Amino acid sequence: MDSSDGVVRSQIANELLRIGAVSLSPSEPFTWASGRLSPVYCDNRLSLGYPSVRDLIAEAFEQTVRREHLPCDVIVGTATAGIPHAAWLAQRMGLPMAYVRSSAKGHGKGNQIEGLAPRGAKAIVIEDLVSTGMSSTAVLAPLFEAGVEVTAVMAIFTYGLEAAQDAFQAAKMPLYTLSDFPTLIQEAEHSGTLTHSEIISLEAWYRDPARWSQDRGGK
């Protein structure tokens, strides 16, 4: 795979579109859990069913770690969608792997962090999707409390919403993503699967998701 960041972003976007992990529907919007309407819906769990896509993602994550010289002793996945990708990356890099539960276990040892993440270790957190950034940054506090230093969060895809930028800035945490919404729009336009008006609608949503939703009767 070409190590060029721009080329990789395009490859990932194309593969996510090809397998239906990202769906674009400007004329019949999706309703998010927040009640907002959106022309895009992402389900990167579908990548689990495609070995070549899994390999592409794991390789791109590894290239990012090495290109950015990110200190890393352990790979940590977010529950649940980040767990398999964290495992594949840890296997490639020969590193321990752990994951963070959304809350502490209600029985046994009451763990919130499972696997091996020793105190003093430097960790990279793996996420499948960044939307508002809240769930991604929520794992940072339990790791900090356990004495684990998170050096970066990496995700397969981001919508690029302002809320996510604010969340990561507040957490003072760098975020690296393999692909993003602007790249997705570009690749969709090149493929010819969307009309010009649909592309314009997607670009309008990207500029102001709240207004786009409200104009169509959503929150």
Write a structural description.
With 219 residues, the protein is an alpha/beta fold. The chain is built from nine helices and ten strands. A six-stranded mixed sheet has the order 7-6-5-8-9-10. Strands 1-4 form a two-stranded antiparallel sheet. It has a two-stranded antiparallel ribbon with strand order 2-3. The chain is globular, with a radius of gyration of 18 Å.
Outline:
The chain is 43% helix and 21% strand.
CATH C-level class is Alpha Beta
Rounded to the nearest angstrom, the radius of gyration is 18 Å
Oligomer: single chain
Number of helices: 9
Main sheet overview:
6 strands, mixed
The CATH architecture is 3-Layer(aba) Sandwich
What's the structural blueprint in terms of helices and strands?
Blueprint: H1 5-18, E1 22-24, E2 30-31, E3 37-38, E4 40-42, H2 51-67, E5 74-78, H3 82-93, E6 97-100, E7 113-115, E8 122-130, H4 134-138, H5 140-145, E9 149-158, H6 162-171, E10 175-180, H7 181-191, H8 196-207, H9 209-215
Parallel strand pairs: 5-6, 5-8, 8-9, 9-10
Antiparallel strand pairs: 1-4, 2-3, 6-7
Helix pairs in contact: 1-2, 1-7, 2-3, 7-8, 8-9
What attributes characterize this protein structure?
single chain, 219 residues, alpha/beta, Rossmann fold, six-stranded mixed β-sheet, two-stranded antiparallel sheet, 9 helices
